[in-house]
Amino acid sequence: MTDRPDLSGLRIAAVIPCFNEALAIAQVVDEFRAALPEAEIHVFDNNSTDDTAAVARACGATVTHVALRGKGNVARRMFADVEADVYVMVDGDATYDVGEVRRLIEMMVEGNLDMVVGSRVDDRADQQTYRRGHRFGNALLTGAVASLFGGRLTDMLSGYRVFSRRYAKSFPAVSEGFEIETELTVHALELRMPFAEVPVPYRSRPEGSESKLSTYRDGWRILKTICKLFVSERPLQFFAGIAALLALASVIIAEPLVVTYLQTGLVPRLPTAVLVTGTMLVAMLSFVCGVVLHTVTIGRQEAKRLCYLSIPGVRERVRP
Question: Any idea what the Cα angle at residue 46 is, between residues 304 and 76, rounded to 5°?
Answer without folding.
Answer: 5
